[in-house]
Design goal:
Blueprint: H1 2-6, H2 9-15, E1 21-24, H3 29-32, E2 52-55, H4 65-72, E3 90-97, H5 104-120, E4 125-129, H6 133-140, E5 147-148, H7 154-165, E6 171-174, E7 187-193, H8 199-206, E8 216-223, H9 240-248, H10 254-263, H11 286-292, H12 310-313, H13 328-332, H14 336-340, H15 368-398, H16 403-409, H17 438-445, H18 485-495, H19 497-506, H20 516-523, H21 534-545
Parallel strand pairs: 1-2, 3-8, 4-6, 4-7, 5-6, 7-8
Amino acid sequence: MINLISISSRFWREHEHRILRLVVDEAHQILTCLNYRSLFSKVKTFAGFNIQKIYLSASLPPRLLPRFLAETGLPNSTVIIRGPTHQLNLRYHVITLEPINTNIYRFIIDIAHIITTTFLGPAKRGIIFCTSKTMVELVGASFNNCISHSDLTSDLRMHNEHSWFIGEKQWIVATTGLIHGVDCQDVGCTIFIELPYGALNLYQGFGRAGRDSKPALAFLISSLNNHYTTTKQQEDDTCIEEGDAWRRNIVECRRFGLSQLLDGKSVRCADLSMAEKCDICQPDTPLIQAIQSVIPDLPSHQPHCYSPPSSILEPTTDDEYGMGDWDDDTLMQIDLDMYEHPTAIKTNQISSSIIGQQLTISNPHPSMSVQIDAAHYRQRCVDKIAKSEEISHMVSLLSGTCVVCWAWKKKMVKKTMDHRPFISCKEPQDGFLNHLIGWIAFKKMIKLKYGLYCWKCGLPQGKFLPYSHPSFKVQTPMRCPFEDFVILIIWHIRHNLSTWKLACQAFNTLTEQMSLIEFGNWVQIETGVDAFYNGLELVYWFWLTHPGI
C-alpha cells in the first residue's frame, strides 16, 4: 500500500488504461493506521482515476463507514457488500485478574498448560498477543523464546515464526504485528494479554484461530481496575470504548457486543444453531473450571475509570502491523523501480498459474459507473480549490482587523495589542455576557490534523494556504498574523442565537441543544474530499451567508 500511494499521480494517469482494478486488502487500516501512517491520507487520490476500486475488510464497523468513504474519496453511492462476522467455531472467554493478587506471567504459563493438555493436544498451536515488546520478552522466556516483535533481527523473527508455523514450537508470543495476514490452519487458541488498542484488533487477532473451521478458543486476559477510554477529542477509529465495554461485560453473551459493533445488529450464541458457546452462555465447561481453579479470588470493589498510557490505547509505531522501525520515506524507496519501469518485471515474478500464457492487461474503456465516480471525485477536488480561494479572499480582506468586531458588530476595527477579543468588542448596551473568555478553553479542545492546518489560526496549510498567510518552513519560527482567526468566529456563531439557529439549519449534524464538548468534537471532523474540517466549513458558510458584514 505504501508503495502504491508513493507512486506519482503522473504515473497513475499515464498507466490507468492498463489497470483493470485496484484491490486493497485489510482496508480498515486506512483508518486505524491513519494517526501515525500519514501517507494513508493520500489513499483518496485513487478515487480520481478511471479504474475500479475494491476495498476488502473483515472488520469495518458500520459506524465507521462514512469516515471510510471520506478517507478513500468514494461516493456515498458506493456498493457495500457485507457478510456476517459470527465466527461460529470460536469460543470467546474473558478472564479478569486483580494484579495485586496475581502474578500474570505465572498465570499465562498455567493457562497455556491447561489449554494445551485439555484442548489443543500436540497437533494444534497457539498465539499469545501482548501490547508491548517488553511483555513479549518476559512472557516469551517461558515459551522457548519463540517470540515475534519488530526489535528482533529479521532473520531471528522469521526463524521464530517459521518454527512455530511448521509445528516445531507450539506457542508463539508476539506483539499485535501478527494479527494480520497469518493464515495458519492449525491455530487452536489465541490469548490476548490486555485489550490491544481496541475492539477491531481484538477481533482480528481472535480470527487467527479456527481457520480450519474446527472449534477454537479466544481469550482476553485483563486487569480488573483498567477502564480504557479515548484521551483525544477525535474519532475512535480502533473502537477502544467498544472494546472496553466488551471486556467489562459479565452478563451478556460475548457475541452480542461484537456483532453489534461489526454487523450493526446483535446476535447471541443461542441465536446461532452451530455456534460454539462463549464463557457466559456456557460457564461450566471442564476447561473453564480448570482455569478458574488457578485464578485467585477477586476483591469485591468495582473497577474505577482511568486513562491508560497512549501506548496501550493506540499504537504509536509500526510494530502493530509488523512494519518494523521503517518510516514512510524508507518504505517509499522499496521496489519503486518495478512501478516506474514496468517492462523490467521478470517472468518469474508472475504467479505460476499464468506462466506460459500471454499476459495482456488492458482497460481502454472503463465502465460508465467507474468513469462517473472518478469524475465526481475530480469535481469535488475542484470545488475544494474554489472554496480555498474564497477563504483566501476572506482572510486577505480581514487581515489586520478584529474578526469578532467584524462578525459581531459589523465593524472593521484594527486589531492592536491591547484589543481583547469579545471583551474590547463589547458595548455598554450588551449587558452581561458569560461567554467573553470561554473561547480560550474551547480552543484547547480542538486538535486539528498535523501539517494540514495552522495550529494557531486554524487556516489551511500546504496547497490550500491563504495567499496572505506566511509559508511554513521547517525548524523556522513563524509568528502567525491571523492567530485565533477561525476559533473566534466559531465561538461567535455558537453564542449568537439567531446565527446559531441558521447554522443548525445549514448543517444537519448540528443541533441547537448540543453541549460544548459535542460541538468541539463536531468542529474537528472532516466529511469528504471537498471539505475542510467542520469548524472551517462553518466559518466559510458564515462568510458566504453574511455578505453585508
